[in-house]
Design goal:
The complex is a heterodimer of chains A (398) and B (362). Chain A is mainly alpha-helical and 398 residues long. Chain A is built from 12 helices and 7 strands. In chain A, the strands form 3 sheets. A 3-stranded antiparallel sheet of chain A has the order 1-2-7. Chain A has a two-stranded antiparallel ribbon with strand order 3-4. In chain A, strands 5-6 form a two-stranded antiparallel ribbon. In chain A, strand 1 and strand 2 form a beta hairpin. Classes of the chains: A mainly alpha (398), B mainly alpha (362). At the A-B interface, helix 1, helix 3, helix 4, helix 11 and helix 12 of A face helix 3, helix 10, helix 11, helix 13 and helix 15 of B.
């Protein structure tokens, strides 16, 4: 459309159009100029970088990945020590980013839906509280919120010796949050298998129930049966196989707790800050999605005799989801990208580890390129998954 | 029959007392179902538990103008951390006796914002006034003429830096963003590809990686002997980052203009730049004012990230204040203060954007 091809009428019998007025030739010319400019600018940067790197005796390439990192990382999903390679250190950072992003996305969506629905509540107090929540959290920089939670955890929680002890085996102190964990036993594997089988059965049941409902109109309570199966089956296995109850309870050794499962105040502050901030945006998206469904839909559902909860789950949400999903995806991407702020409060995510790597090796270009590649990859994968889900929802609707 | 008539006409008999006024309102909005009654009761209890102690902490037991030691004795909040370090938090390392200059600049900014708020002042002239205003603000702050001592931009810190990064960032990113949006809609494959790659690349990475790029990578790209100060490099990163987001917003505006407008312009014999400049962009840019304000809000909030590469914006000056042992225990108060500053700025802009959206729609 853009370059006015409509002017390009054939005029064979007349004199030839001079090339500076022929849109097709001009287009080629402009593109050539743009490409030459971009390429030469790129080459200029490359040339300068080469000269500077040579002058400062900084090596190039990703050879540093195989060398010993030599720095410790506070928390890690996989085993790591300072003697490991840079590649492993970066992998630790990557997994930490993944951990906080995945948990954060799940919690954000749940909290966002709750607050978004609450904003539309018929209870004036609930609606107003939800509005205040949204306005306050949306309008304060997420970094400030992270600092706030971080200092709050650090200053208001006691030292390990005076840990807060809300439940047996649970300890909160300024080094972290400690929970008991069952000691490993082969039964747990089988319980996991039983749980997975229950879910698969539930899925098959759902298909069968749907077919039956379409044929006979009789409704089968799939949800409750699946939940029941998923709870009962592992419990039965657990009871049959001797009911192991031994727990790995955190206990004080020297100045710190060992045992159980724990997460650090940094992780807690990061997760809390990201979830609260992003959920405010998700709540607004959910609200506008629900409001976009015309009132006639609700009234039609009411006149069919559906209960308010059923109206929401059967009539409103399936339609609202189509509107909600695209902006929701971009909020998920925002959460993943904002998890990079971990570096500000000292949580070792990919950016923090890459930053240490840059400082130690001086290889800034490779480091920044790695960070960017990781986030681009996450963005692409999230977009792909959400596009697939969006398509699925759209198909179900028609 | 008669009976009903007198009933209706009787002015004494209105709706039942329990259905109107405060009680009626409460019945309709707070206790309209058992579930809602329960929720209301729970929330009221929570408010009763939280608000009075909070009020006591903030106002009754608080101290406002003491030293840090005196604060430790106070039962409430120590607002002294703010009042005592007020000028450092706001202006940072800007020379103390020259701080009237940023105050004037910020005042000028508020006047401009105030007038831009009214749609009857919207015209090309206002745009020019804004550009001139931004230049004047920069000149007042930098000085070096009329006997005003020169203050290098490296000394600009606190709220000035925050505002400058956001405002200059958006102003400079806007033309770039429009160009990128046009490029993305272009029929020329090379230009389209370049624009798409740029926009998607930037939107796929976090701002912090751009800031890292500015702090550790840009110096490597400059020829030997040339250095650019850190603030300017961060500013460039913010501009490059914001431009990609503006491009997407403007693209939305371009797509919203009906095809007939493009075709009519072509039928008039306008060339590409005339068509865009005279017909399409004036309409498209008007539609995208509300989302552009949203980008400004994000930019305003995102400037706080420069803390991570060690620039002294509002957040960093606060942290410097808190690193003083005298005040280190009162981070909550200090953070609350700058949270309020950020909140006011963002809330006002968000409200403006929302109202505008409503106005432009009708």
């Amino acid at each position: 459309m853009g370059q006015g091809q409509s002017e390009n009428t054939p005029r064979d019998h007349q004199e030839k159009i001079p090339f500076w007025r022929d849109p097709d030739k001009l287009a080629i010319f402009y593109q050539g100029v743009a490409l030459v400019l971009v390429l030469s600018f790129g080459y200029y940067l490359f040339y300068n970088a080469q000269a500077n790197l040579a002058r400062q005796h900084i090596s190039t390439g990703f050879g540093f990945l195989g060398r010993q990192a030599g720095f410790d990382i506070g928390e890690s999903v996989i085993a790591y020590s300072a003697a490991d390679t840079y590649a492993r250190a970066l992998a630790v950072g990557l997994l930490n980013t993944l951990k906080v992003s995945l948990l954060g996305i799940v919690l954000t969506v749940i909290l966002g839906i709750i607050v978004g629905v609450a904003r539309l509540s018929t209870n004036w107090l609930v609606a107003k509280l939800a509005t205040i929540y949204i306005e306050i959290l949306q309008n304060i920089p997420v970094l400030l919120q992270l600092f706030f939670w971080y200092t709050l955890f650090h200053t208001s929680l006691p030292s390990p010796r005076q840990s807060v002890h809300p439940l047996p085996g649970v300890f909160f102190n300024n080094r972290g949050f400690y929970y008991p964990l069952p000691v490993y036993h082969p039964v747990y594997v089988w319980m996991g298998v039983a749980f997975a089988l229950a879910l698969i059965t539930g899925w098959l049941l759902r298909r069968w129930a749907k077919r039956r409902q379409e044929l006979t109109g009789r409704i089968f309570p799939v949800g409750w049966v699946t939940v029941g199966l998923a709870v009962v089956a592992p419990a039965v296995i657990w009871a049959v196989c001797g009911a192991p109850t031994q727990m790995d309870i955190p206990h004080l050794v020297g100045f710190n707790f060992v045992g159980g499962i724990n997460f650090s105040p940094e992780f807690g502050a990061l997760l809390l800050g990201l979830v609260l901030y992003t959920s405010a945006f998700v709540a607004e998206i959910v609200r506008s999605g629900i409001q976009a469904i015309t009132k006639g839909q609700t009234e039609a559902a009411m006149s069919l005799g559906l209960k308010p909860g059923r109206i929401l789950t059967l009539v409103i949400l399936p339609q609202a989801l189509r509107i909600i999903i695209p902006p929701l995806t971009s909020q998920m991407l925002n959460l993943i990208k904002n998890s990079s702020l971990a570096i500000a409060i000292g949580f070792p995510d990919i950016v923090a580890v890459a930053n240490t790597t840059i400082n130690q090796t001086g290889q800034a270009i490779e480091g920044v390129a790695l960070i960017m590649a990781v986030y681009l990859f996450f963005s692409l994968v999230t977009s792909a998954i959400m596009n697939w889900y969006n398509k699925k929802k759209a198909l179900v609707e028609r | 029959m008669e009976f009903t008539k007198t009933q209706i006409n009787d002015p004494e008999i209105g709706p039942p007392k329990t259905e109107i006024g405060l009680i009626g309102w409460m019945k309709a909005n707070l206790f309209n179902s058992p579930m809602n009654s329960l929720l209301t009761a729970m929330i009221l209890y929570a408010i009763y538990k939280v608000i009075p102690p909070l009020f006591k902490w903030m106002f009754i037991g608080s101290v406002w103008s003491t030293s840090g030691q005196a604060c430790n004795q106070a039962s409430g909040a120590c607002w002294s951390v703010v009042t005592h370090n007020f000028r450092f938090i706001l202006f940072g390392f800007y020379p103390y006796d020259q701080q009237w200059r940023p105050t004037v600049a910020i005042g000028l900014l508020f006047i401009l914002i105030f007038f831009s708020h009214y749609r009857r002042f919207w015209s090309k002239a206002l745009l020019i006034v804004w550009l001139v205003g931004i230049v004047i603000m920069g000149v007042i702050m930098r000085g070096g003429f009329f006997g005003l001592p020169l203050v290098e931009s490296t000394k600009w810190s606190g709220i000035i830096l925050t505002l400058m990064l956001a405002l200059f960032g958006l102003t400079a990113a806007y033309p770039l963003g429009v160009l990128l949006a046009l490029g993305r809609r272009s029929s020329m494959p090379a230009i389209k590809t370049l624009s798409v790659v740029y926009i998607e690349l930037i939107r796929g990475v976090p701002l912090i990686s751009m800031l890292f790029m500015s702090s550790v990578m840009f110096p490597l790209f400059l020829p030997e002997g040339i250095t650019i100060n850190k603030i300017l490099r961060a500013q460039v990163a913010i501009i490059l980052f914001t431009a990609a987001y503006i491009a997407e917003v403007v693209r939305g505006g371009l797509q919203a203009i009906p095809k007939g407008q493009y075709e009519a312009a072509e039928a008039l014999g306008l060339n590409y730049s005339q068509k865009m400049r005279l017909i399409v962009l004036p309409q498209a840019l008007k539609i995208v004012i509300p989302p552009t304000v949203s980008i400004l809000i994000s930019a305003f909030k995102d400037t706080s990230l420069v803390v991570i590469i060690g620039l002294f914006d509002l957040m960093k000056t606060t942290q410097v204040t808190l690193s003083d042992p005298e005040w280190s225990g009162f981070s909550t108060e200090a953070y609350l203060f700058i949270a309020v500053l950020y909140f006011i700025g963002c809330f006002v802009m968000a409200n403006f954007s929302r109202n505008l959206e409503k106005e432009l729609k009708t």
